[in-house]
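Posting this for the archive.
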Amino acid sequence: MSFVRDVMNTSVVTLPATATLHQATSTLATNHISGVPVVDDEGTLVGMISELALFDVLFDPTIQHHQVDEYMTREVHTVAEQDSLTDVAHRFAFHGVRRFPVVRDGKLIGIVTRRDLLAFCQEHGDEISASEVTPMPFADELSEIEAQ
């Protein structure tokens, strides 16, 4: 069985909540990414900021110096390193997000993107057994999975 730890990237670009929106926009553009985890001084995940949330900055230079924590998403869906890739694929489909921060005890330890998952499956498709592939659960079943 394949797990998040097999796919996740542990070299994660992050921002502090006190970063400016200008810094966030620059970070996304420079690193060619569409979103970034926001962490506190101890590395605890406190939110996510995405390019969609930053569109206002492009057209309103007066807010470029506002802090990221004013625009970030605070309720972030996360995964754990021991979660199966099948469960994560279902979560990607269900939540419609592009990335999941990987956390351990609230601390950010990595990130897994849809592209990471697709690339892994493309590269290791022959190794992924039929027993790992399960039908997409109904919404109530997925809620139970996430509660675990």
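The two ends are 19 Å apart (CA to CA). The domain at 4-147 is CATH 3.10.580.10 (CBS-domain).
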